[in-house]
Task: structure prediction
Amino acid sequence: MRPLYFRLLLVLSSGLISASLLWFFTDKPAVVINASDEYSSSNFGGDFSLMQTTAEALHKKDKNNFANCEKFSLNQLSGKFVILYFGYTFCPDVCPLGLSNISIALKQLGKDRDQFVPVFITIDPTRDTCEQLALYKTNFDPAFIFLTGSEQDIDKVKLQYRVYAMKEENPSRPENYLVNHSSYVYILNRQGKFVKNLNHDTPSADMNKAFVDLLKYEIKSSK
Result:
């Protein structure tokens, strides 16, 4: 027979494991305003400067990749909530799903729609020119801001937001490569600070709830 203290230890351990599993699988609030995970550290996120595609890019091409773009910085959106997503236009399924969910969730906001600005940052600046982004932009919420930049500038922003992206070579057709990448939807507050991240496949109704919860929290905090 095992010693009594050993049996007690097993019971306590089982209880702790059960409690941990219960916490993990229990539905948690859609928005955690004071996030305590790794994303909330002071060195996460922040302002950045990239190039924004313009309407002109849809109708004319230029050998200069950024000729039909204009300078953009996150600080320009101060006072608005920002919905930030990293992806690429040649992404076969993950990115279109994420952007569609964001677009639908924003549309469901009704009168509060203008309080949020969706922003897409490419992780594939080689192919995602200003012209390519302008064409891709027509598939989603018209308020979306689509950004590109030099490899160096994109790498810097990826590092700021801890975005994983790895090119998957295609030896037979080098130009048709895929990019394996993390796929989170980042919610930033009106000061550009990180609030919460959602998975790209979060249903649009749940995304919408996260946005609404953020507005409710803001109203409650102001009282």
